[in-house]
Amino acid sequence: MSPTLSQNIFALLRYATVIMEAQISKQQEVKDD
Questions:
Q1: What's the superkingdom here (predicted)?
Q2: Which residues of the chain are modeled with pLDDT < 70?
Q3: For site-directed labelling of 16, which of 22, 23, 24, 32 has its Cα 20 to 30 A away?
Q4: CA separation for the pair 11, 29 (Å, rounded)
């Protein structure tokens, strides 16, 4: 794979991780209510 492609994959993984963490935090806030 080209370096650019691998960098894009890592960027997408980080982006997905941030979204997942945000969704989990939102679910926890709802449960606290």
A1: Eukaryota
A2: 1, 32-33
A3: 32
A4: 27
